[in-house]
């Protein structure tokens, strides 16, 4: 019996130091990314700092065309999210600012309004729009892949925290995809029914070509 107990204790002593490596995989972003993702950092070298991120503490710069910015805490910024199916970010929108229509192909999104007011909404695949005016403390969700937006129609800056159920949710802004790119102006006119003058104006505004 003592020999069996000794054997069990020896087995546990072998397994326990390796258990934490199955609990998480903090990405080592200094190494090349593979098809299955980033390699894991050695768990024995991790500290609490590896699971903490302070990059959302300060307001983002809203001195731009859209008077808004998103500060991401995605996989590349916060390697502890690797394998957790989670990302967070900070949204700052100045009065009159807008986060234009966009989609996240790989994630659902939840927005929590911390300060100010926002008009938010999305359009589903049956072309029904869901639009809501939010006040501080409100939460709104945007289903995966659907076009959605945020607008500050108030007189004070708005600040929100977003969470997404992917560490790399992806994002495509409709306006920027069309008018910041080299997408042919003639094809944009044909596929969107916009006038030549409007397409030219938007390409000039957003820096597109062709």
Automatic annotation (TrEMBL):
Occurrences of domain Cupin type-1 (ranges): 54-200
Cysteine disulfide links: 25-40
Record localization: Secreted, Extracellular space, Apoplast
InterPro entries attached to this UniProt entry: Cupin_1, Germin, RmlC-like_jellyroll, RmlC_Cupin_sf
Binding sites annotated in the UniProt record for oxalate: 104, 109
Annotated coiled-coil segments of the chain: none
SMART domains registered for this protein in UniProt: Cupin_1
Binding-site residues for Mn(2+), renumbered to this chain: 102, 104, 109, 148
Annotated Gene Ontology cellular component terms: apoplast; extracellular matrix
Classification via Pfam families: Cupin_1
Keywords attached to this entry: Apoplast, Disulfide bond, Manganese, Metal-binding, Secreted, Signal
Gene3D superfamilies assigned to the protein according to its UniProt record, in alphabetical order: Jelly Rolls (2.60.120.10)
Listed CDD domains: cupin_OxOx (cd02241)
Molecular function (Gene Ontology), one example: manganese ion binding
Signal peptide stretch: 1-21
Family that this chain belongs to: Belongs to the germin family.
Protein name according to UniProt: Germin-like protein
């Amino acid at each position: 019996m003592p020999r069996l107990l000794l054997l069990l204790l020896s087995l546990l002593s072998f397994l326990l130091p390796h258990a934490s490596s199955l609990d998480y995989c903090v990405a080592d972003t200094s190494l090349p990314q593979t098809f299955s993702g980033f390699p894991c950092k050695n768990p024995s070298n991790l500290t609490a700092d590896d699971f903490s991120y302070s990059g959302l503490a300060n307001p983002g710069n809203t001195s731009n065309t859209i008077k808004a910015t998103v500060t991401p805490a995605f996989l590349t910024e916060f390697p502890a999210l690797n394998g957790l199916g989670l990302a967070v970010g900070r949204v700052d929108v100045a009065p009159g600012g807008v986060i234009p229509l966009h989609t996240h192909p790989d994630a659902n999104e939840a927005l929590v309004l911390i300060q100010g007011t926002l008009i938010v909404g999305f359009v589903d695949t049956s072309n029904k729009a869901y639009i809501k005016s939010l006040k501080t403390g409100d939460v709104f969700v945007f289903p995966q892949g659907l076009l959605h937006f945020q607008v500050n129609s108030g007189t004070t800056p708005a600040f929100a925290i977003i969470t997404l159920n992917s560490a790399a949710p992806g994002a495509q802004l409709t306006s920027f995809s069309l008018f910041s790119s080299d997408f042919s102006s003639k094809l944009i006119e044909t596929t969107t029914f916009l006038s030549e003058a409007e397409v030219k104006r938007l390409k000039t505004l957003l820096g597109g070509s062709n």
